[in-house]
Amino acid sequence: MSLPAILLVDDDPLTVRIFQHIFMKAGLKNPLYVVYDGDQAISYLAGHDKYANRDLFPMPTLVFLDLYMPRKSGHEVLAWIRNLQAFKNLQVVVLTSSSNTTDIEKAYELGANSYLLKPVTAESIKEMVDIFATQISGNCLP
Fold first, then answer.
1. What is the CA radius of gyration of the chain?
2. Has residue 33 got a pLDDT over 90?
């Protein structure tokens, strides 16, 4: 049985590299996929274009979503996700540098499962993955 896939949606290459490093440091073995803007996130989740092959781009069970990105914002992506019945069980953690109360409230109103502020630690990422993986399909730990 393969481990649940995780999707990181963030437009900052430095943040992506840091997240990947933290992910490895936390000892998580789940496959991690990365897209760099809101349009790519929607294409990935919908299985459009190059993301149509689910063997190469499996459906994630957990999404880490930045709020401020080009093309479509994290709020727009989150609204899109929650408007589709097919994604009702998809766990979405907003991962952003914004501590703005309005952003936090809007994210939760749109259906975010959690809200993490950057910078994140290996422990906080591992905790989030453990919590949501246990809820969905069992343990993600090595």
1. 14
2. yes
Domain spans of the chain, in order of start: 5-136
The pTM assigned to this predicted structure is 0.86
- For 72-93, b/e burial (b = at least 16 CB within 10 A) is bbbbbbbebbbeeeebeebbbb
Name residues whose C-beta falls within 8 Å of residue 22's C-beta, 6 or more positions apart in sequence: 120, 121, 122, 125
Highest mean pLDDT among 4-8, 36-40, 126-130: 36-40
User: 5-136 adopts what CATH topology?
Assistant: Rossmann fold (3.40.50)
- Vertex 19, ends 14 and 20: CA angle to 5°? 100
Contact (CB, 8 A) for 76 and 38: yes
Report the alpha-carbon distance of residue 101 to residue 99 in Å, rounded.
Answer: 6
